[in-house]
Amino acid sequence: MKFENRITRLFDIDYPIIQAGMIWASGWKLASAVSNAGGLGLIGAGSMYPDVLKEHLTKCKAATDKPFGVNLPLLYPDIDQHVKHIIEARVPIVFTSAGNPKTWTSILKAEGIKVVHVVSSAKFALKSQDAGVDAVVAEGFEAGGHNGREETTTFCLIPNVRASIEIPLIAAGGIGSGRSMYAAMALGAEGVQVGSRFVCSEEASSHLNFKQAVMDSQEGGTQLSLKKHTPVRLLKNKFFENVFNAESSGASLEELELLLGRGRAKKGMFEGDLEEGELEIGQVSSMINDILPAAAIVSGIWEEFLAAKERPFFNV
After folding, report:
1. 243-257 burial, b for 16+ CB within 10 Å, e for fewer?
2. Which of 112, 218, 247, 260 is 20 to 30 A from 3 (CA-CA)?
3. Residue span of the structural domain in which 164 resides
4. Which residues of the chain are modeled with pLDDT < 70?
5. Is residue 214 included in any domain, yes or no?
C-alpha cells in the first residue's frame, strides 16, 4: 500500500525511503532494485567518470520503470558532463551535495528535474530553500562518508532544520531500521535517507571484504577524521590509524593530502583492501549483521516503521 506524504508525492514513490548515493556502492543495480521495491534509488555519481555515469543511467532505465535519481557532488571536476548526461537521460531527480546549491539548481529545474540538497545545519538548509530546491536532506554527524564540520547529531539537527524551513525534509545519519525511521519522522522529517544499511545489500557494488568488515564492526568502530581536510567518518583500520596519528601530531593540510593520495576510497570500498583503503561507513554499522537483497531491506524498514507507528516502544 502506498504511503502518502509530501516526499512520496514529490518523487512518486510508495515509501519515503531513499537509498543514499554512496560512492563505490550505489550503481545502477542497487538504485534500480530500491526503486523497484517502492523506495527511491540513487546512483552515486561521485565515483564515476562521465562515460561510466552514462552507462549506469542507461542500464538503470532498462532495469526499472520507476523513478530513480542521481547523487551529484557539486565539487566534482567534470560536473558539467555529468549534468549533460543526466539531462539527456531525462533523470527525474537529482540530489546535490558538497557545494553551493545555487550553482546548478535553476539549470536542473529548468529541465523539469526535481532537486534535493544535502545539508548539515539549519543555516544551510535555509540557504538551500532560498536557492529553490524542492527538498533538503539533513544529515547528522553519525553518517558515513563526508560529514559536516558542525558535528551535529541527527536528533538535534532534524528539529532545528524543521523549524527553519517550509519545504519537505529528509533525515539522514544513523538511520538503518524502521525504529530509527520512526524516531526521525517524530522529530519532523518526512522521509529518510539510508546509506550504510544498503552497503550490505546484495546489489551494492562495494567489495565483499568491505561488506564483511562492516558486519564485523562494533560500537565505536568508526570515527570522524580528516577534520583539517574534509571531515569524513571512517571505519577504523590501518589507514585510519595513519590518519589519526598524522592529525594528532599536527600534520599540515599538505601532509594529509599526501597521505590520502589518489584512489584511496576505491582501494578500500571497491577493491577490498582493508588495510590501506579508505572505508567510509556510518555509526549504524555496528547494528548491521547480514547481507540482504535491497528489496528485503526496504520492506524490512517499512514494516518495522509501521509496527513502531502502531505500537510505540515506550508502551512495550
Report:
1. beebbeeebeeeebe
2. 112
3. 6-205+288-315
4. 312-316
5. yes
